From TrEMBL:
PANTHER family: FERROCHELATASE, FERROCHELATASE, MITOCHONDRIAL. InterPro entries: Ferrochelatase, Ferrochelatase_C, Ferrochelatase_N. It comes from Membranihabitans marinus. This is Ferrochelatase. GO terms for biological process: heme biosynthetic process. Signal peptide: none annotated. The keyword Transport does not apply.
Length: 346
């Protein structure tokens, strides 16, 4: 279901926005997606000329064919990308839950369905209030910041502005933690020797840029406790997210590890790197490990392929036996309820 009907009682628009996906796993479509994605200055924050040369050269023609092979591993027909398919399913379930007073649309920051199309649909509906929901639990300039900037770029073209609500983070909401606990209930957590909580990484320099008070030390010690100084720090939010989940699931602290995946390039990113953690656990003799990624609300390339396939192979290659990946929230009813609460509270 990709079209929504509007009721005359509809007063509030809800725009769910995730990262995006290529239109197909063909190299040309993956290349188009990577160029749009990685030319975003909030994603690769280096000088304009350097970014253009890097993305349109080595990445577009070196990385795209490899990425296309990875997308082929998760692509299904007729649904295509799981990220998009789950997006539409969540949109429809949320629409049903919210009822006729709301009009729920789905958009992607890059490629289709576009933010511009989602905004235009809400404009045509002449709704009094819009709620923008970037589907990223933790706040980062490269994700939430980029989404909200793009939304404002589209909205400012009009003379009349709706009442606007923007949700910039939700990693610490009790109902979000509860949704993950619901997914975790399908796993025998006690049977695993170690549980890795893996989040998408960021270059360390982006942590410094997001710290106007110069509090950031870009190390684990600095991020261990949420304070007024670091409450908007992506890394600190990730460590706190792990702590909240660990406490909810009643897991011993020594069993849980927070790490960061998907490093791009040679610059220093947030540590520890998930790849290094996985390898070391296997080398240290651990045989059964579970990995969870609370940064992703739907399964996608980074979970299905990177965590579920590549890191599993890495673990076994270095001596491990069992490496399981917990599925994401996807369209879990508890996740739909969490989204419903987020929207109706505003």
């Amino acid at each position: 279901m990709k079209n929504q009907e509007q009721n005359s009682n509809t007063h509030t628009g809800v725009l769910l926005i995730n990262l995006g996906s290529p239109d197909s796993p063909k190299v040309k479509d993956v290349r188009k997606y990577l160029i749009e994605f990685l030319l975003d200055p909030r994603v690769i924050d280096i000088p304009y000329i350097n970014r253009q040369l890097l993305v349109r050269g080595p990445i577009a023609y070196g990385r795209a064919p490899r990425s296309a092979e990875e997308y082929q591993k998760l692509w299904t027909e007729p649904d295509g990308s799981p990220l998009i398919a789950y997006g539409y399913e969540v949109r429809d379930l949320l629409q049903k839950q919210l009822g006729n007073g709301y009009k729920v649309e789905l958009a992607m920051r890059y490629q289709s369905p576009s933010i511009a199309d989602g905004i235009n649909t809400l404009k045509k509906a002449r709704l009094k209030k819009w709620i923008i929901v970037p589907l990223f639990p933790q706040q980062a300039s490269a994700t939430v910041g980029s989404v909200l900037e793009k939304v404002m770029e589209e909205i400012r073209k009009d003379w009349i502005f709706p009442e606007l609500v923007m949700i910039n983070q939700f990693y610490d909401r009790p109902d979000f933690i509860e949704a993950w606990a619901e997914v975790a209930s399908g796993y025998n957590l006690q049977s695993y020797e170690k549980i890795i909580f893996s989040y998408h990484g960021l270059p360390q320099r982006q942590l410094f840029k997001a710290d106007p008070g110069h509090h950031c030390k870009a190390n684990i010690e600095c991020c261990q406790k949420i304070t007024r100084d670091n409450q908007d720090c992506y890394s600190a939010q990730c460590f706190h997210n792990t702590r909240l989940l660990r406490e909810k699931l009643k897991l011993p602290e020594e069993k849980c590890i927070t790490s960061f995946q998907s490093r791009l390039g040679r610059s220093e990113w947030i540590k520890p790197y998930t790849e290094d953690v996985v390898k070391k656990l296997a080398q240290d003799g651990f045989k059964k490990v579970l990995i969870i990624s609370p940064a992703f609300i739907a399964d996608c390339l980074e979970t299905i392929v990177e965590l579920g396939m590549e890191y599993k192979d890495l673990f076994i290659e270095h001596g491990g036996d069992t490496f399981d990946m917990m599925e994401s929230l996807n369209a879990n009813p508890a996740w739909i309820q969490s989204l419903t609460n987020m929207v109706t509270e505003r």
